[in-house]
């Protein structure tokens, strides 16, 4: 039931799946306290919005993920119109494009509380003028926001070092991660493992590596495919699953490698995790590596690049292995080590589970967000 004096807040994301897969628990909890509006590009191919609470409003904006000056200018004007009519007390953006346009619109209209969440920096892997422009956009977002949320401690140190954020007006939610892990959904299960392997046609004795997420160059998928190609020459019982959207059209080449299986984006990542033995995320850049703690909650250790973000999600030699980024040889060696050392793998899986369940629960992160909203809104009210 709607309470008339509830404050109005807006959450702005570029694509609805960001809210569906990462923010839904927070939205559900916030909708009990505030009048929540979710703003996104709802014209994209998505499932029905039955995952949203009934009392959450939705507003469509034709926002694009990539830079398009004319389109972005139109979306900025549209957002200003929406904000002007809605009397929001707080606007929270997630993702670079949504952050740029939502923070600009809310700044121009002097919306009291403006929050943006950084989940990694695209410019880290870019060069030249592109890097300069993208870095300047992050600096602009930070300068016109009231508060910055960051999904890992190492990312915060990186952003402070590059003068993007300052220590006082930014914080890491909980121990890291954008939303924590749903421990009711992500949990180990022998039956789930057998069922998924049977469905996928994978032998129970096979050793399964898993990549779960958007497949593009920056995720290190080229090195992962090459490392597995060499590994599979010696270990024919090894399998590598690529699960997620094929953004750079690599799947056709990967499928030529013996033992590689590819699948589209899934609403049931926990099934693929339970079917696997080791998760691999050899990214060049990552804000945190959320999938790593999802795997950890299922008792599955991970191999990841030794970069900011992932180094928060993996404790090296305790919950998984960190390897030199872009190194096919180091990645292959780590994969082979865990494949051949069941004792180490079991120990790391148990450590990963204990860490995920005690430090990264979804409820812990949601409580932090709720408290942050309340504190920032109270500060505004007292001004």
Instruction: Quickly count the domains.
Output: 2
Reported by name, the CATH topology of the largest domain is: Rossmann fold
Strand content range:
15-25%
Helix content: 40-55%
Query: Can you summarize the main beta sheet?
Result: 7 strands, parallel
Kindly provide the radius of gyration, computed on alpha-carbon positions and rounded to a whole number of angstroms.
Answer: 21 Å
Reading the helices and strands in chain order gives EHEEHEHEHEHEHEHEHEHEHEHEHHH
CATH class of the largest domain: Alpha Beta
**What spatial order of strands do you see in the largest sheet?**
3-2-1-4-5-6-7
CATH architecture of the largest domain: 3-Layer(aba) Sandwich
How would you describe the overall organization of this protein?
The chain is α/β, with parallel strands linked by helices and 383 residues long. The protein has two domains: 8-180 and 362-382, Glycogen Phosphorylase B (Rossmann fold); 190-359, Rossmann fold. The two termini are 30 Å apart. Helices cover 45% and strands 16% of the residues. Strand 9, helix 8 and strand 10 form a beta-alpha-beta unit. It has helices at 16-30, 69-86, 96-108, 128-144, 153-161, 190-200, 221-234, 251-254, 269-274, 290-297, 310-313, 328-340, 342-359, 362-382, and strands at 8-13, 35-40, 57-60, 90-94, 113-118, 147-150, 170-172, 207-212, 238-243, 260-263, 278-281, 302-305, 320-323. It is globular and about 65 Å long. The chain has 14 helices and 13 strands. The strands form two sheets. The chain has a seven-stranded parallel β-sheet, sandwiched between helices. It has a six-stranded parallel β-sheet with strand order 10-9-8-11-12-13, with helices on both faces.
């Amino acid at each position: 039931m709607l309470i008339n004096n509830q404050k109005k807040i807006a959450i702005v994301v570029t694509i609805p799946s960001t809210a569906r897969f990462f923010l839904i628990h927070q939205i559900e909890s916030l909708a009990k306290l505030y009048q929540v509006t979710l703003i996104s590009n709802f014209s994209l191919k998505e499932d029905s919005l039955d995952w949203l609470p009934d009392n959450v409003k939705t507003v469509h904006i034709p926002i694009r993920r990539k830079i398009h000056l004319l389109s972005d200018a139109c979306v900025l004007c549209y957002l200003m119109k929406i904000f002007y009519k809605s009397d929001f007390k707080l606007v929270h953006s997630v993702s670079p494009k949504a952050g740029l346009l939502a923070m600009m619109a809310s700044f121009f209209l002097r919306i009291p509380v403006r929050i943006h969440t950084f989940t990694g920096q695209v410019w880290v892997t870019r060069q030249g003028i592109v890097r300069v422009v993208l870095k300047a956009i992050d600096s602009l977002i930070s300068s016109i926001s009231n508060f910055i949320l960051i999904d890992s401690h190492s990312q915060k140190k990186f952003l402070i070092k590059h003068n993007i954020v300052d220590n006082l007006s930014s914080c890491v939610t909980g121990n890291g991660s954008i939303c924590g892990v749903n421990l009711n959904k992500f949990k180990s299960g022998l039956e789930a493992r057998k069922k998924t392997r049977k469905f996928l046609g994978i032998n129970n004795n096979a050793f399964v590596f898993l990549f779960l997420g958007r497949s593009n160059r920056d995720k290190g998928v080229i090195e992962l495919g090459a490392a597995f190609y060499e590994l599979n020459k010696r270990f024919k019982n090894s399998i590598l699953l690529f699960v997620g959207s094929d953004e750079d059209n690599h799947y056709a080449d990967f499928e030529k490698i013996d033992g590689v299986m590819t699948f589209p984006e899934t609403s049931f990542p926990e099934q693929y995790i339970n079917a696997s033995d080791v998760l691999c995320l050899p990214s060049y850049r990552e804000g945190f590596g959320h999938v790593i703690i999802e795997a950890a909650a299922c008792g599955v250790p991970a191999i990841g690049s030794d970069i900011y973000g992932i180094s928060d999600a993996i404790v090296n030699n305790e919950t998984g292995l960190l390897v030199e980024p872009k190194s096919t040889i180091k990645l292959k060696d780590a994969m082979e080590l865990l494949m051949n050392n069941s004792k180490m793998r079991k120990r790391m899986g148990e450590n990963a589970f204990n860490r995920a369940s005690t430090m990264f629960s979804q409820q812990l992160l949601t409580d932090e967000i709720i408290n942050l909203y309340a504190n920032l809104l109270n500060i505004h009210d007292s001004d």
